[in-house]
Amino acid sequence: MKYILFFICALFLNTLIFSQENYKVGDTVPKFKLWLTNGDRLTENDIKNKVVVFKFWFTSCLPCRIDIPELNKLVKEYKDNKNVLFIAPALDRKGAIDRFLHYTPFKFKIAYSAMDVSQSFNKRQAYPFYYITDKNGKFLYVDKPDEKSQIMSIKKVIKEALKE
Description:
The protein is of the alpha/beta class. It has one domain: 3-Layer(aba) Sandwich (Glutaredoxin). 38% of the residues lie in helices and 20% in strands. The chain has six helices and seven strands; from the N terminus they run H-E-E-E-H-H-E-H-E-H-E-E-H. The protein has helices spanning 2-19, 62-66, 68-77, 94-103, 115-121, 151-163; strands at residues 33-36, 41-43, 51-56, 84-89, 109-112, 129-133, 139-142. A seven-stranded mixed beta sheet has the order 2-1-5-4-3-6-7. Strand 6 and strand 7 form a beta hairpin.
């Protein structure tokens, strides 16, 4: 009996966790407000008519740090394209991010203290977590909890979005 109860509880918990997958491909980007380390503010209105790559992360997350060199190459590849925006909302406070960036350059627009936005986009609080939106503010790419994002798939989605 206790095994059956355990199984039912596990199934319920699993359903609850996966039902928290907030957004899927085709959904509209929610309202948000991010404060960038350069002093700018960024909202959903600022990303209109742009393809946007969001990377949710924090500085002490090793998996979050591993792909930064590859992501920097991607930013460099699109540096002259004003239709592509790279945003990295971080959980950390500005001081921690500034110290991190002193030793590890990260070319995305970095937002600090973005826990509220992260919770809105990323209910499971899995890190790093990626979203890509199209020029109409619709999600084109949403990280899957059972797959690791690959730079090549992110590049492919950006190229397809720019063709539209």
